[in-house]
C-alpha cells in the first residue's frame, strides 16, 4: 500500500463524506479559503459536495457563509 505522504508536493484528492481518496500522491493540499498548505495527516475538514479542503472548522464555516452571500 502506498503511503499518502510519499511525494513531497501537492496531492490531488477526491473528497467523500467520511474519507478521501488520493488521486495523486503528495504531502499536502491547499485550503480553499486561505490557500494555506494542509498536511494530509492533519486534514480533517472538507466539502464532498464542493470538493474543497479547509484548514479548520472556521475556514469551512467562512466558505459556507461566502457561498450563501453572508460574508
Would you kindly provide a brief summary of this structure?
The protein has 71 residues and is of the alpha+beta class. The chain has one helix spanning 57-67, and strands at 12-15, 20-24, 28-30, 37-39, 45-47, 52-54.
Task: Give a written overview of the molecule.
Residues 1-5 have low confidence and may be disordered. The chain contains 1 helix and 6 strands. With 71 residues, it is of the alpha+beta class. It has a two-stranded antiparallel ribbon.
What does the average pLDDT come to? 91
Query: How many beta-strand segments?
Result: 6
Poorly predicted sequence stretches spanning 5 or more consecutive residues: 1-5
**Spatial ordering of strands, largest sheet:** 1-2
Helix fraction, binned, reads 10-25%
Total helix count? 1
Q: Give the termini distance in whole angstroms.
A: 42 Å
**Biggest pleated sheet:** 2 strands, antiparallel
Write the element-wise H/E pattern from the N-terminal end onward. Answer: EEEEEEH
Instruction: Name the overall outline.
Output: globular
Structural class by SSE content? alpha+beta
Q: What Rg, in angstroms, do the CA atoms define?
A: 12 Å
Strand content: 25-35%
What are the salient characteristics of this protein?
71 residues, alpha+beta, two-stranded antiparallel ribbon, 6 strands, disordered N terminus
